[in-house]
Amino acid sequence: MPTNLAIDEKLLNEALKVSGHKTKKNTVNEALKEFIQRRKQRDIISLFGKVEMKPSYDYKRDRRDR
Predict the structure, then answer these.
(1) Which structural domain range is residue 36 located in?
(2) I need a labelling partner for 33 at 20 to 30 A (CA). Which of 15, 19, 21, 47 fits?
(3) CA–CA separation, 20 and 2 (whole Å)
(4) Count of other CB atoms within 10 angstroms of residue 30
């Protein structure tokens, strides 16, 4: 899908250099993937300490039973 974006040229050039990609398109697509992955990780991390685990739960036994 063709899209016109006003992207900071300095940032894009640095991203090209750091990423090792040959095209701006590949660089931007990779940056978007990483952005999405980091946001999803942040959402998961926000759950730490909020999910209660049963003290009797044996994850090792559960693995063996599969």
Answers:
(1) 9-51
(2) 47
(3) 23
(4) 14
